[in-house]
Design goal:
Two copies of one chain form a homodimer. Chain A is of the alpha/beta class. Chain A is built from five helices and 13 strands. In chain A, the strands form three sheets. Chain A has a nine-stranded mixed sheet. In chain A, helix 4 packs parallel to helix 5.
Chain lengths: 266, 266
């Protein structure tokens, strides 16, 4: 049933080079707006997930096992075994509070949000324990105006660039502590209580700094009903202000979170 | 670390009733367009996935196993075990052809598409074996104009309404055959070859009809480099023309497909 024929490389080249027959000619300007491709570009904020992707110490790594392969009478498919909080993923409020919203129950409208990116990468490059502070939020507002309603606030610590470098993403020191940036719990509380935010997000594995022992950023944000997104990719490719983010959270019933496809429109 | 305090019901009511402090007042009309919530509504085309969700005979059902619970020193999290083609999900071209695009490699821009809904529900209500034919596509074009560029063409057979009724979604007859609608392979080939389509989609478990033995719709679409989306929900809530769909495909490396969060903007 399945055919090989060309290598993946060649296949992809063919797919890119040979546009399919377009629809019958319609003058571009006459097309209703919805018939035009969306304005701007789509930026993928999602890391590729594989068994080597850095994961929280003690959690099982992502695993994929083929259960059928392309043949005369079958298709290729795999079974997946994973911890919910793997790869680029969502934390639902139920991650920290029994009875709170599970990942399937996050309002769909809250999965679409203006994207606010607060860059602390220069500081994080010299101090891996640095935290995104309320002052950083106020500095963003001084530059770009008040945080937009129902926005998602993402920390760009530059950590997304470290995923491919073994050991650099978790950055565990000789004493076994993760040395990674995160949100100051006071800043997370400020966003949850003083601004109209749907989610906080980080390009590290956790919205809390690696040295955090009380997980105060998680508790402040998720405990207030916000969700979180962790391990975002490509935050250097989106502007500090002006993008829209779509968080393709998974929808398994009762989940505390899970891998998400996160796309930005710029 | 986790707190209970209020029941889920009350918690959600509180979350809904108490708006967070808005950003400092900005006259609505002065806000740049990106600071306004996206126009229109977000419709969730994704079913909730749980162990009872109908699955292909022989595939493992979705499974979720708690590995930690809210306590003084831990958060709630689960491990997930699933077949890739579970719930509302994507089929990548690699599902049918070795070496073709895997789910992580689908171009992000192709995950955002004008949504075309072709309704054959009246016919399917009296004939579960009916197929979406090329004539149905041409009838859609006669009513709404040419298929837009880079669109996703979804079959609404009414089957999405059957998910909650045990046995009705797979609709297996006394002889063991699934009796479910699908794309006529010739229609899938027409879309792949004669129109500019990124994906075909169905509200059934398969883009092929249940009686199909050659899986011709899969082969015509995926074999041409299109992807597919199966088991879409809520297709009655989106218009035949005019919506935009975002397919939050998973991004595990080398995957043949997987559960996706699918959202429509109407």
């Amino acid at each position: 049933m399945c055919g090989d024929g060309v290598t993946a490389h060649v296949y992809r080249q063919i797919a890119r080079r040979e546009p399919r027959t377009p629809s019958p000619a319609v003058p571009a300007d006459d097309r209703p707006s919805w018939q035009r491709p969306p304005a701007g570009r789509v930026i993928d904020l999602t890391h590729v997930l594989n068994p080597l992707f850095p994961h929280w110490p003690g959690d099982r790594p992502f695993e994929m096992r083929p259960v059928s392969r392309c043949s005369e009478d079958d298709f290729h498919a795999n079974e997946l075994m994973l911890h919910e909080h793997s790869g680029t993923h969502v934390d639902a409020p139920a991650h920290v509070r029994a009875g709170a919203l599970t990942v399937d129950a996050i309002a769909p409208a809250d999965l679409v949000a203006p994207l606010v990116v607060i860059d602390i990468a220069d500081r994080a490059a010299v101090d891996p324990d640095t935290m995104l502070a309320t002052a950083d939020i106020l500095a963003w507002e001084a530059a770009h105006g008040p945080l937009p309603a129902r926005c998602l606030v993402a920390m760009n610590s530059g950590w997304h660039r470290r995923v491919a470098a073994p050991g650099k993403f978790l950055n565990i020191d000789a004493d076994g502590y993760m040395r990674t940036p995160g949100f100051d719990p006071a800043a997370a509380a400020f966003l949850a209580e003083q601004r109209d935010v749907v989610a906080i997000a980080s390009d590290t594995l956790s919205v809390d700094a690696g040295l955090a022992t009380d997980f105060g950023a998680h508790l402040a944000a998720l405990g207030s009903g916000l969700y979180a997104v962790e391990a975002l990719a490509h935050l250097d490719a989106v502007p500090a202000a002006g993008a829209l983010v779509i968080v393709g959270a998974p929808r398994h019933q009762g989940g505390s979170g899970g891998p998400a496809r996160v796309l930005a429109f710029v």
